[in-house]
Amino acid sequence: METLDILIIGGGPIGLACGLAAKKAGLSYVILEKGCLVNSLYNYPLNMTFFSTSERLEIDGIPFMSINAKPTRPEALEYYRRVATSRELHVKLFEEVQTISPNGDTYTVKTPRHTYNARHVVIATGFYDIPNLMNVPGEDLPKVRHYYKDPHFYAMQRVIVVGAHNSAVDAALETWRKGADVTMVIRESGIGSRVKYWVKPDIENRIKEGSIKAHCHSVIKAIRPDEVDISTPDGVVTVENDYVIAMTGYQPNFSFLEKAGIELSKDEKKYPAYNPDTMETNLPRVYLAGVVCGGMDTHVWFIENSRDHAEKIIAHVKRNA
User: Fold this and answer.
1) Which of 48, 94, 130, 179 has the most CB atoms in a 10 Å sphere around its CB?
2) What pTM does this model have?
3) Domain coordinates of the chain in residue numbers?
4) DSSP single-letter state for residue 273
């Protein structure tokens, strides 16, 4: 079995950036992705617009051309696909990593299809796979969705959107514009401060005029097939309802990290242990890259501010070769 210099887990933008850096350095590598190419971006809402400009989403200096000031999900999918194909990156899709095990000076990585051996492992798995649950009765009903894709599905339906940040605001506005009766349930005092600046006035005006109803300082208490109980400052309010779109955020696969042997902080943030100068974890020659570095603080790392993780990792690998 060939021993690779680097095995990269995750075929998102940062995983691709690590592959580009490894190839440029003349290192043998493979990128393993459990889903399609840039799987997390693929699962974003169909009409999503990025907060960043296209040049801040570029990797390895490859130009990202967009017809809009802010690129859209389809443009990003096309860009990263062209990067992977034009640079002939060694990517294996729909191959989920099951285990990472130390094997002397190397690591054995197993998937349902193959067993790999690598001197270094990079984990760039993102955070979009496991939703943060509300842990309320009825959350397991089919009407409850933790992922939002297309507003047309909710046309003429009674929709509750849980949350007050970008994903929730986009879902509320888009489904309302398709004719849904929308109610927002917001834990905080109002719309989040990090909501895209060109969207925030829109949602706040829709709430102010009453087109979209909003319960602030409120949480879902129980969900039933035709209605939902909302705990508000004025007591429990029962609302007739067809669908609940719970935009409560997501978290990294902590069990995968722990199973591999990566230490996590003992508090609720679950920060993984790594050296910010090299991205190396407590496991020798095992690195983290991208959003997974932030633990539960998934708003800290993005494509635009974690692209240099690839350069740090490859520089450290070369120094210790």
Assistant:
1) 48
2) 0.91
3) 3-129+250-319, 133-246
4) P
